[in-house]
Amino acid sequence: SDIYSFSMIMWELISGIPPFDNEAHDFQLSLDICKGKRPEIIKNIPQCYMDLMKK
Description:
The chain is mainly alpha-helical. About 55% of the residues lie in helices and about 0% in strands. The chain contains three helices and no strands. The mean pLDDT is about 90.
């Protein structure tokens, strides 16, 4: 969970917006995240960042 949290912070820093900003932050989103839902990978970021965000 620490890696997930760190990768979401990285995503927000790179994109300039919070992950899942266009979705309701509700129980369903929590379930979807637990099932593996992740925000789209941002283009043109270093491969090592992509690898970390996919964990």
